[in-house]
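Lab meeting minutes (informal)
Scribe: AK
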Amino acid sequence: MHTPSGTSLPVMPVVPAAFAPVPPSASAGARLPVFEGTAVVPPADYLPGLESAAPADEDAGWLHDALLGPYSADIVGYLSLARRCGGPVLDLGCGAGRLAVPFARQGFRVEAVDRDAASLERLRAWGRRIGPQVSRLLVTTRADLAELRLRGRYRLVLLAGTMIAAVPPHARPGLLREIAARLEPGGALAFDYTAHGLRGLSEEPDRTWAFQVPRFDGVEEWTVARQVFGLDAMSERITYHSVRTGKVRTERVARTTDKWIVDPECLAAELDAAGLRVERRRAHRLDERTESVLLVCRSAA
């Protein structure tokens, strides 16, 4: 459901001088905290996510976890749905096992799909650390969701963490048809996405956030995220500029993730064409221009 858990990342008193973030245009008249002469948006209960970007190295996992952490409460709702639907469960865009491993710990057989080999290895290693009773329930598949071809049949399919936004619009109808064809009778597809007000995006297509990444390895990491929306292509690009300061050296790292804006009307038509009907819709307002939406869909047949 991708809703805030009520936790926020800590705001520290000083942003590294290496940063020079640009404040969002809509905040020009607002009272923003000023760090070393630079105005930035403070961390909210959610942050622009890294859902479609695979961690490029081990250190990138800290940023990935920080961005998904405030939304971790979604596992409660998805587990509740799994208990009603049963298994096996298909976790699409599973990452390092944020949902797949806890599901296996609850006794569900899970096929976990992701395009990033390093993330899948982290998932398998996590399962092995817990023990064979969990690792034997986890099957990993490396695949791009835009080209997904499934072999099994499933009682529950998950696209959690707004992973639907990581699928190009031209590939989304095919993915939904593939999922619908592999659902067991009575099975469900559950996914969440961020619904943006298009007027708000046109008025403020460029947004900047600054926050500290919680780390527990002796490294201090600050990140400025620049989020740019392109309404013509219904695209979203987020570039993360990070400064990591350790005992010996300071390094600067930049990484970019590309996603797509989900149009609710187009999505509804695609679900209908795939033979899926929306059984439940839940929306949570994130701010005056954005809401998080959870959909549970079943076969219309």
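Next up, CB showed the second protein from the same session:
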Amino acid sequence: MNKRNFIAGAALALATLAAVPAMAQQVKARMGHVFAANSTMDQAAQEFARLVGERTKGRIGIMVFPANQLGGEQAQARELSRGSLELALLNPGSLAGLNPLLDIHYLPYIASDFKQVDAIFYNPKGVLQTTLRETLAKQNIETLGFFELEFRAVTNSSRPVEKPADLKGLKLRVPGSAAIKGFFEETGAQVVVMPFPELFTALQQKTVDGQDNGASITYESRLFETQKYMTLTNHVYAMGTVASSSKFWSALSEAEKKILTDTAAEVTSKQIDKSRQLNADFLKKIEAGGIKLVRPSAQAMAEFEKVGQGLWGKLAGTYGAERIAALRQEAAAARK
């Protein structure tokens, strides 16, 4: 091959490479979350990463970072908003510092059982999902799906809590949520807002007496090791979001977006089922770890609900009177 032919061949090769669309190149993405490795949330994240890789034929490669490896939820949400993190599993209720509407689903006693939960929380056109999607979008965060974070309970190291009056004076860590904070303040508890990654040490050092999380998080994050009592108040049902930065999302094709949303729907559905199946098992393990479980009587639960639902009107300024009125209608319909 003479020099002229060599140069022509090289130019043709370069032109061919230049003609390969950018979309053919692999996209690498990180997916963070604060939940324990091998928790149902982490399993869902790992499966999501694997399936997206398979379904995009390797075009999108996702690496999962569990257990606060990329920081707490607020830190991860900020990185999503900036576009410096691509994907995350978020608990919007921990992000009220970004926008107070992000913990509207933390209003106490929206639902009292899973049938009501499914009708209210997992209704794509309902008040809760609509509010969370729209509010996160304003932070440059896209919502791909919703997963379960279970009913919350109260644990503490001081005394059994059997009725609302028993909470008076207890120093409890709560997330940055007006709804949860307000609920415990109504009972006379002393509330301390702190990030989740600081909670275990705070409980261990008696900086706070207790906290409110459900069975899976209390067990998998080993919080029960610092506590003596757990009361199944079910005061709040929490759900999380599979989230993407708007920057990452906007770079995907419509076909790829569909793969991600369809895959998110698939893995979150499995996660919700698994979470509910494992709940009783987590409670048994917590009890075996030396924690006394308290199941409030029907009368005591009615007292807890009265305190919680009585707070809704007081928070109209935070969540909007129209939203609260619409949510009341949805809750009433689900209870029929």
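CB comment: Residues 1-23 have pLDDT under 50 and may be disordered.
No objections, moving on.
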